[in-house]
């Protein structure tokens, strides 16, 4: 009788233990997810040899997550933001950072990822871990896990390629007929590919392509800009082009190039994707070099009167009072915003598999802050949206508000 009783107790304990184990498994939806929290962390280029930094994206993401948490979270879960790792603009360090976040820190997703040479893409794709940020390089394209807030900026031949930059500038200049454009890139893979797609954006808008130069070293600004300036100033049949497009990551590069062009007497339009940065205005020499430059951010400018921008400013002020608003900050904010929207649409029963299925199953999200995103389409092409900002008399002004255009097949 004693042995039967003992066996009964053991069986009961085993059944209870199994039930508890099953209940615990069911309650753990995915790594980084509990009934009340979702853990995420990012990878940024906080430091680099050239001085280029995307560290402000961390503030932007935190601001958006904090508002979501203040509103009760997403389906009752609040975002536990661990902050962002620094890849030092080194692909190997980016890969190590991604592995640390997934394997050691057990994050559900990587938000934001804003690093030109990010090296963790293959690992995240293999592990089925979602990641959100600025899709500046080819590592974002063709994945099922990487969600750039602007789509894929490095489409393959035949896939959709953006036309918005050229068309927005053509509208600003009163048309592109008879106007020429020269594109300067660095020798990095992302910059060279950007030169290809951006060149087509301008030719699709009706500009004539005067030339593309990808010989500029990406590691640091050259000691002498004259060889590059001479090519530009004679590229349009021996004359300067009407528009010079800089596809270079780093304020020091653009300040050097633009200053040299102005010294050479260039009077045309200067435009790039990175010079919309209020921090630049604190340096008189940089502000002077960038005076008149037309920047092309892929989000609605901070000077806009759109309600979404007022909300962004309010969110940032709450978490980091007095913070200077930068392009990198906005990128972190909008990447986090899309992640939150996708969480909401996935529902309370959250796993990575269900999250990715929602994101890759005719997912569409429109917001005046960044335009429109459509997945899975935008895994292979840009979202086609952007704005223009001009620096005039030491202050940024909205030249063209956010607008989306149809892409064209990349030649």
TrEMBL record:
Has UniProt tagged this entry with the keyword RNA-binding?
no
Q: Which residues form the signal peptide?
A: 1-20
Superkingdom of the source species? Bacteria
Q: Which Pfam families match?
A: Peripla_BP_6
UniProt key word Nucleotide-binding: no
Q: Which InterPro entries match?
A: Leu-bd, Peripla_BP_I
Tell me which residues make up the Leucine-binding protein domain.
Answer: 37-394
The UniProt keyword set, sorted, is:
Signal
Per the record, the similarity remark reads:
Belongs to the leucine-binding protein family.
Q: What is this protein called?
A: ABC transporter substrate-binding protein
* Species of provenance: Nonomuraea marmarensis
